[in-house]
Specification:
heterodimer; A: alpha+beta; Folate-binding fold; 4-stranded antiparallel β-sheet; two-stranded antiparallel ribbon; 3 helices; 6 strands; about 25% helix; globular; B: alpha+beta; Ubiquitin-like (UB roll); FAD/NAD(P)-binding domain; 7-stranded mixed β-sheet; 6-stranded mixed β-sheet; about 30% strand
């Protein structure tokens, strides 16, 4: 059983004091452009998940503590938590830089999109 | 054949001045304080402890402690009986009652032993072969007979009278095992100030230091161990646990220790102390000092009583002063077993050594030779004479790789001490993903890498020389303390002077060839508890079970309660030899927790009986109890199912309650209904995202029924939403869904629409809520001096008012789940009982009666209202249950909307909710009955849907049912067939609203 630290209230507890919420950073297409969502896009949103061996990014809830959701970066091999960060935030830059494969692609795309949005404004 | 006996002197563990009486299979026996049951029974002249699992072969003690897999006994009587205890671990006490297992009618004569003679019928995987035909025989003949013949002990009778407890603790360092390695590691860590827990499964610390020859500072190592243990007991930062097995290791160094507090002394649990205690420990560092387990050698009939592991024989003599027999043979492939030969010789027992190695010229063999012990090198035991014990052995010359016996000679003997080398006890290493590596020197697996903060030391790591063990253990203890306490100063322990006879390498031997044709008629056991032989494993290879995990499951090798502690590697070795592979190529099977069988009591702890699952009670629970309500569980709640009067049958009381609602007025305790307040400037917009229908347009003071879907488009929950004012809503959920829905709302707010200014507050338990339903409901409310107008015009269907009834503050919702004129009245929970009493009193002239959940369900079914979980099953859409009208077409988005557009959710043949009238109005279809497209003599038949709710309706005077049927709405008037056991029930498809379709009874 894992142990976690809630980044919101600081509670330190067993996995059973928290609630695992699956993969982090999944974008819900209907919240943005509900009129134009292809079947494939919706299916990906519902079912396609990253399942890496190594660094992974997850959602957790401080169930028996403050009740807040947060993000965690965890190594799926060593089970070590590398970082905890806010539910609306991206991972700390040094952790993000360690991402490989699908996660690396994802963060690259996010940063590109953010840069583009920044250039527009 | 001679019997084992107590020697006239010796026995470091026993107190010869303190006699203890006990019984074994009802026979009164006598032993000494300090004996194990295994030692005491043998001291009384008995070798036979039980019959084996499959072949019912006679079996005796093999091992030293928890690895024992033959001498499994039942201990205690009645409710305190514990089956499958290892006789080598059971400590003797006055009045102990133990029984052997798996024998009928008696140990020495067992009719099941015919299985041994018929063993050609029971090869590896026989379950899958022998009993295949005819099919019907399995259930009625084969299985009952096999179940009776196989198996281990019997379960205790009655409820466990003892108590159990669990403790959660944090520790800097947990040391597993209290042998010399564990003691040295714990000492080093403790001196540096770390909080240390050291746990050992035996009654005394020291491991097998008393059976080994090395010395520390000029004294036997056991003396050093005794002093080191005392220092740990005395240290304030060390907790010493004995009789405490570390049964598992999980992520982030979560360690579970099962402590047997009172098994060795019945006065302890009887005094109220727990019998077992489960320690749940979080350790910063874990040091595994679990030692090594001796392995046997597979030779013909190597399971006969009197054949024991060499260390176990040594312990019998040196610890308990028990002679296993008068004339022994030590069969070995290593130097360590010569210590056993020397111990026997010293105790005056005749002994010779059979060594499979070509040369035996290490220090220990030389000592044995000097002591006059005959040694046959390059030899193996090729046959054993005797059934209930050993009468003689055949000794054959042997060269590694040789498949058959060339010449052999007979030697009389009555016991055998066997040693095939040592396997590091790496089980805990593997529980949590630790890797093993094969050690050529040991010819065994030892711990490799591990992701957690855990290290292995000493024999558990494959380190066998005493000086190396001590250095390694101390270093590990210091390193662990340093990690936990970075500022701690080095331990600076005094140097130890260690001397020990060097051991020469062992030579692996997995299989000793037998007399006669290869392996014929002789069984070479590798898994004694499950009766798996080398031949079984070879057969599995021939049949293509190449993966070791497949072989394991096919032959049940290593799947007994001991998880192959003793025999596993022998099996791997035998497979390697049979297939020409190396052992690392064969691989190894997975070890899983628990390390040894652990009682359910310890696993459950104090969470039994009333504490097993807390029962949630509404504010009027006591009243329901007083009235003799029959309860049903709804989530964690207990809700009144019905209120039978004296002598009244449940069916009668339910019908009475229903008709009273339809004709007069009933009152229901609906407090369990989920209630969540949703508050804030964006509450309306938020609920529009959550519900399929529009909630932001709801006017203050009005109610609206809503559906929530999950993102897949399937119905998740339903309930009435009430708007108090612009920014405040109350969301009702199902009784079972309250917590889930509240958490779900929070999740969306926190993770998706973080800009919404909304608070979600679950208030289910803050409010008592009662439904007053029936044509005379208004009269009851009116009689309670309401502060508001109760007329239909002022308070119509689906409206809300807040006020008082007499002195009681209330929220009144005019909503109905019965189809009658109905008010749901909520009051703060502490007023609940007062309101309930007031309603009953005011309602008495109108014939008010309480009604339970079954009446509630029939009433709603008569009206065709769905229950989430009955009419829906997690794959049901709003349209499936005829509620597409509740799905907004205006809203751009709500949870589940996009998924509803997917093709398969709009497919033409989906199941749709319909009503059913059976041809015989008294026939009630069972819930879940399937309608078929075409009735055939026997299955399979294509089903087209199933019954979701079915009742006898007293209102209609006939049975009614709701069902999900393919394309159901297009089948109105069709007759469907429901094949049941021995008959076919036919029913007509009708509208699911059976009563008051136009809702006239609601709008009054």
């Amino acid at each position: 059983m894992l142990t976690l630290v809630c980044p919101v209230c600081g509670a330190h507890g067993d996995e059973t004091d928290f609630h695992a919420g699956g993969q982090a950073h999944i974008r819900r297409p209907a919240s943005h452009d509900p009129e134009h969502i292809s079947d494939q896009e919706q299916a990906d949103y519902l079912f396609t998940r990253i399942n890496p061996k190594g660094l992974h990014f997850e959602r957790w809830r401080c169930d028996r503590g403050c009740g807040k959701w947060f993000h965690a970066a965890r190594d799926t091999v060593t089970l070590e938590f590398k970082a905890y960060y806010g539910i609306t935030e991206l991972p700390p830059p040094d952790i993000m830089a360690q991402a490989r494969g699908a996660w690396a692609d994802y963060f690259k795309a996010r940063q590109k999109a953010a840069a583009k949005a920044g250039a527009k404004s | 054949m001679s019997k084992p006996r107590r020697l006239s002197s010796g026995g470091s563990r026993i107190d010869r001045s303190s006699r203890v009486s006990f019984t074994f299979d009802g026979k009164l026996m006598s032993g000494y304080r300090g004996d194990t049951l295994a030692a005491a029974v043998m001291a009384n002249g008995q070798r036979l402890f039980g019959r084996s699992y499959k072949y019912h072969r006679p079996r005796g003690v093999i091992g030293l402690g928890s690895e024992e897999m033959n001498a499994l006994v039942g201990v205690g009587t009645g409710a305190r009986h514990e089956p499958n205890a290892r006789a080598t671990q059971v400590e003797l006490f006055e009045g102990l009652a133990a029984v052997s297992q798996n024998r009928f009618p008696s140990l020495s004569f067992d009719v099941g032993a015919i299985n041994n003679t018929l063993s050609r019928l029971f090869p590896g995987g026989f379950y899958y072969k022998t009993f295949m035909w005819p099919k019907v025989f399995w259930k009625h003949i084969y299985e009952p007979v096999i179940r009776k013949a196989a198996g281990l002990g019997v379960a205790p009778e009655g409820r466990d009278p003892d108590s159990y407890e669990q403790i959660h603790v944090h520790a800097d360092v947990v040391v597993v095992g209290g042998g010399v390695a564990g003691l040295a590691a714990a000492e080093a860590a403790a001196v540096m100030g770390a909080r240390v827990i050291i746990a050992d499964e035996n009654a005394v610390l020291g491991g097998i230091s008393d059976l080994e020859d090395g010395t520390i500072d000029g004294a036997p190592q056991a003396e050093w161990a005794r002093a080191a243990a005392q220092k740990l007991y005395d240290a304030e930062n060390v907790h010493v646990l004995t009789r405490a097995t570390v049964v598992g290791h999980w992520h982030h160094n979560y360690v579970m220790i099962a402590e047997r507090v009172g098994d060795h002394d019945p006065a302890i649990p009887k005094s109220g102390a727990p019998r077992h205690r489960l320690w749940k420990v979080r350790a910063k560092q874990v040091i595994l000092a679990t030692g090594a387990l001796e392995r046997p050698i597979a030779f013909a009939n190597n399971d006969r009583p009197g054949i024991m592991l060499a260390t176990a024989v040594r312990a019998m003599v040196q610890r308990y002063g028990v002679a296993p027999g008068e004339q022994g043979v030590v069969f070995t492939n290593n130097d360590d077993a010569y210590l056993t030969a020397l111990a026997l010789k010293e105790a005056g027992i005749a002994v010779q050594v059979v060594d499979s190695r070509a040369r035996a010229d290490g220090a220990l063999p030389e000592r044995a030779r000097a002591a006059g012990i005959a040694i046959s090198t390059g030899s193996v035991i090729s046959a054993v004479k005797g059934k209930l014990g050993v009468e003689a052995v055949k000794i054959a010359s042997y060269r590694k790789g040789q498949g058959r016996v060339v010449s052999e000679r007979s030697a009389p003997c009555d016991f055998i001490a066997v040693s095939g080398g040592f396997n590091p006890a790496a089980h805990l290493w593997c529980h949590n993903g630790g890797k093993l590596t094969f050690d050529e020197g040991l010819q065994s697996y030892r711990p490799g890498s591990h992701a957690d903060a855990i290290v292995a030391v000493g024999a558990a790591k494959g380190t066998m020389a005493l000086a190396d063990i001590m250095a390694e253990a101390r270093a590990a203890g210091e390193a662990a303390a340093k990690v936990a306490l970075p500022k701690a100063k080095a331990a600076k322990l005094a140097k130890l002077a260690i001397s020990e006879d060097a051991r020469k390498p062992l030579e692996a031997i997995w299989f000793a060839p037998a007399t006669g044709k290869y392996n014929e008629g002789n069984k070479h056991f590798v898994d004694f508890q499950h009766d798996v032989t080398v031949a079984d494993l070879e057969l599995a290879q021939r049949e293509g079970y190449e993966s070791i995990e497949h072989t394991k499951r096919y032959t049940t090798f290593g799947m007994a309660t001991d998880q192959g502690k003793v025999g596993n590697l022998n099996g791997l070795g035998a497979i390697a030899e049979a297939t020409g592979k190396t052992i690392p190529e064969v691989g190894f099977t997975t070890f899983r927790p628990p390390y040894t069988p652990t009682s359910f009591g310890a696993i459950t702890g104090s969470l039994t009986k009333k504490l097993f699952l807390p029962v949630r009670q509404t504010p009027v629970f006591d009243w329901h109890m007083m009235k003799g309500a029959v309860f049903e569980p709804v989530g964690q709640w207990r809700r009144p199912y019905t209120y039978p009067r004296d002598g009244e049958d449940k069916h009668v009381s339910i019908a009475r309650e229903i008709l009273n609602v339809r004709n007069n007025v009933g009152v229901l305790d609906a407090s369990t209904l989920g209630k969540i307040e949703v508050k804030g400037p964006d509450a309306g917009a938020f609920l529009d995202r959550i519900y399929t229908n529009m909630m932001s347009t709801l006017k203050p003071g009005r109610c609206r029924y809503g559906l929530t879907l999950n993102e897949l488009g399937f119905i998740m929950d339903d309930g009435v939403v009430v708007r108090f004012d612009d920014e405040r809503f109350l969301v009702h959920t199902t009784s079972g869904g309250a917590d889930r829905i509240a958490a779900w709302l929070e999740e969306w707010l926190q993770t998706e629409w973080t800009d919404y200014r909304v608070f979600v507050t679950p208030v289910t338990e803050q409010w008592a809520q009662f439904a007053v339903a029936g044509p005379r409901a208004r009269d009851v409310i009116a009689a309670l001096k309401p502060s508001f107008d109760v007329s239909h015009e002022a308070l119509p269907h689906m409206s809300f008012v807040e006020g008082t009834l007499g002195a009681l503050p209330v929220r009144v919702y005019r909503i109905s789940f019965s189809g009658e004129l109905s008010y749901e009245i909520a009051t703060p929970a502490n007023h609940g009982r007062a309101l309930w009493d007031a309603l009953l009193q005011a309602g008495a002239p109108h014939g008010i009666l309480p009604y339970g959940t079954e009446a509630l369900h029939v009433l709603r079914a008569e009206k065709g209202y769905i229950v989430v979980g009955d009419e829906t099953d997690g794959t049901t859409t709003p349209d499936d249950v005829g509620l597409s009208g509740l799905v907004s077409k205006k809203k751009a988005d709500f949870i589940g909307k996009r998924s509803l557009e997917q093709a398969h959710l709009k497919a033409p043949n989906r199941k749709q909710l319909v009503g059913l009238y059976t041809e015989n109005p008294e026939e009630v279809l069972p819930d879940g009955a399937h309608a078929v497209a075409e009735v055939k003599d026997k299955p399979p038949m294509k089903t087209i849907g199933h019954v979701t709710s079915s009742y006898l309706s007293p209102t209609l005077g006939r049975s009614i049912a709701m069902a999900l049927i393919e394309n159901g709405r297009a089948r109105m008037g069709d007759v469907l067939s429901f094949p049941l056991d021995g008959k076919v029930v036919r029913a007509t498809v009708v509208d699911p609203v059976f009563y008051d379709k136009e809702g006239a009874r609601l709008n009054v």
